[in-house]
Amino acid sequence: MGPSHTPASAQAPAATASPANPVRRVAAASLIGTTIEFYDFYVYATAAVLVFGPLFFPSENETAQTLASLATFAIAFVARPIGSVVFGHFGDRVGRKTTLVAALLVMGISTVLIGVLPTHASIGNLAPALLCLLRFGQGFGLGGEWGGAALLATENAPPGRRALYGMFPQLGAPLGFITANGLFIVLATTMSDETFLSWGWRVPFLLSAALVVLGLWIRLSLAETPVFAKALAQDRQVRVPVAETFRSSWKLVVLGAFSVMLTYTLFYLTTTWSLTYGTKTLAYERQDFLLMLCFAVLFMAAATPLSGVLSDRFGRRPVLATAMVGGAVVGLLTGPLLGSGSTALVVVWLCAGLFFMGLVFGPIGAYLPELFPTHVRYTGASLAFNAGSILGASLAPYTAVRLASTHGVGWVGFYLAGTAVVSLVALALLRETRTASLED
Length: 440
Known about the structure:
- By secondary structure, this protein is mainly α.
- It has helices at residues 23-56, 62-93, 96-114, 120-123, 126-154, 162-190, 193-200, 202-219, 226-233, 241-259, 261-281, 286-314, 316-332, 334-337, 343-361, 364-371, 377-392, 396-406, 409-428.
- The relative contact order is 0.16.
- Residues 1-19 have low confidence and may be disordered.
């Protein structure tokens, strides 16, 4: 059974609701978590491409090493929906703030522990098993992170500016990416390959502890969101949010997941897989290709707030549809641009891919939460977002490596374009939410 909605005449007085959080604090608290999220994930993805193969999955076949390493990358995406259910339960029953703190701790501790993990040479097959366990922990914590950060932003937003507020957590993607890549560039230019393989790769994982402490300090200073505080005062929680979500909103979860599928495929093909292809097939130096990626991600950083402003003015669906069509075009140009090996054309492909990634990623911070009612919003938005990660990203780098090695780089582009079409169809079946009320 769903919650019983209290008539307006019987609603709790406004004084029972949480005070509004200052804009700067909302921006910082929602931004820090996704910055850490993408920092952690890209640190792992980069290490999976560069060092995890020989350190944790030694083999005489270099491709087999890379594929085994990238397979562990997928584990976190399987864990994310599980984290969505667990953290969503408490986020919809206890509160957004407390749940966000717990999710950040789980995600951060898992990342730091990877930095002290013994390798296969020290403890044998226990090493990859523990790596998989900690990777699961990363994904489990992340399953509750994004939904809470998006709700923190949108449920504190004034009318007509929810997409602008909702893009705060989305901006964490380019910030985390630049931080992780910048650190790898510093390491690549200050130490030899042997030193990096020996212990240098651990540094980015250990440094994430500082980001986690900063994130905890910011989030513990927040008040609960006014929207949830009002629902709490009116006793509108449900006993089992995940059951209520699938009873009343399962179609929204499914369509929402497919609508964000392109977001993940586009990001991880233009970053994680392109690094593999650029360094191994096109023979770029690692630091050179990382610099190209850092430049390209600036286009994503610019497109993310732009998409928030545009979707507040014109609606979520028109902006998302435009971005999805752009993503399909980038896919079709993968062979001619990236496959050319020309530095100028490779950079154009990277910049275009990450620009449309920002354009499709920005509005999602408001769009997915707006699809669901308050009493299941944390669970529903988190499930849709993280199920989309399984569809779009869990096997994207692995699939791209196989397609490029067996059929050529152009087929990777067809794969990307196909996901864009799937997301566009799902979006067409969802409603516009720009003027929807969050207080239901």
